[in-house]
Q: What sequence folds into this?
């Protein structure tokens, strides 16, 4: 059975992700106590189900600590992927304020009285500490600056991509909207010539031929790509030796429209023969923008 486990910080978009998987044909369960997951998987497998998506998070209380062991057990019999959603504290506070929902660890909302917190910010930080170990078990997505339709597209493309070994993700972003929290490595390309200052190129992106030709004519751009490639070629074997399943390389320019997009695309093509590669663009992504590099 293919099992997608969705976890992460409350308010980061787990409901959006679960709904996307339900639309993709997964049998979905929300807020399942961690200890029941093996029993549920066994029951649904006997019933002929082949795809299961489950959301497990801080609402499970103290049982969340058992989740790593549960995942290890499940992986002996099923194909299990973990998707960890996170967001900045500022973004989360804004979302809870807009929806007027209570955080599961705030006040007496928690199932465990010992986990209560005095304020929303305290509850968010307490939850980060509680779930810190889970973030390393799978692929992280920072939803701080993502629209819901983009998150749905990213989730669907992620789970459609069957893989073994290391999945290498190149993500372009704009520094003016903040660093992506899901990045393992960040490269700053703001020092490179900027197509933004050419009024003909400003409305385009790094996916468009005129911008590509502009950047390909700049030696510094090509040198930057070569240097990032050399770094990754040297250290990818170490990440593989560390049994990493996912590595997200974030490439940032000022607005996330031109330079970072072009460089992410170029790096994706360069490494397609050495690793399983996905390329995504945080600032320009339409619903179908996340795609596998051929």
A:
């Amino acid at each position: 059975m293919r099992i997608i486990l969705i976890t992460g910080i409350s308010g980061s978009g787990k409901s959006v992700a679960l709904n996307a998987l339900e639309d993709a044909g997964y049998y979905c369960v929300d807020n399942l106590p961690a200890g029941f997951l093996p029993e549920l998987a066994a029951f649904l497998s006997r019933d002929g189900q082949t795809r299961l998506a489950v959301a497990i998070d801080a609402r499970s209380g103290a049982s969340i600590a058992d989740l790593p062991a549960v995942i290890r057990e499940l992986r002996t019999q099923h194909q299990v992927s973990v998707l960890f959603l996170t967001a900045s504290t500022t973004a989360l506070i804004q979302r809870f304020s807009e929806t007027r929902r209570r955080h599961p660890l705030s006040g007496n909302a928690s199932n465990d009285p010992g986990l209560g917190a005095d304020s929303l910010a305290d509850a968010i930080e307490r939850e980060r500490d509680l779930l810190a170990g889970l973030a390393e078990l799978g692929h992280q997505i920072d939803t701080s600056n993502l629209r819901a339709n983009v998150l749905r597209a990213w989730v669907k493309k992620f789970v459609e991509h069957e893989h073994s070994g290391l999945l290498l993700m190149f993500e372009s972003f704009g520094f003016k909207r903040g660093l992506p929290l899901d990045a393992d490595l960040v490269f700053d390309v703001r020092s490179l010539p900027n197509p933004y200052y050419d009024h003909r190129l400003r409305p385009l992106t790094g996916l468009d031929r005129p911008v590509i030709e502009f950047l390909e004519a700049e030696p510094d751009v090509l040198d930057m790509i070569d240097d990032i490639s050399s770094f990754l070629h040297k250290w990818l074997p170490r990440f593989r030796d560390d049994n990493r399943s996912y590595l997200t390389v974030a490439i940032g320019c000022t607005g996330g429209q031109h330079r970072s997009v072009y460089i992410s695309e170029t790096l994706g093509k360069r490494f397609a023969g050495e690793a399983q590669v996905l390329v995504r663009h945080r600032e320009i992504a339409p619903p179908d923008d996340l795609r596998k590099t051929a």
User: Anything to note?
Assistant: The first strand starts at residue 2 and ends at 8. The radius of gyration is 20 Å. Confidence is low (pLDDT under 50) at residues 108-117, 287-294.
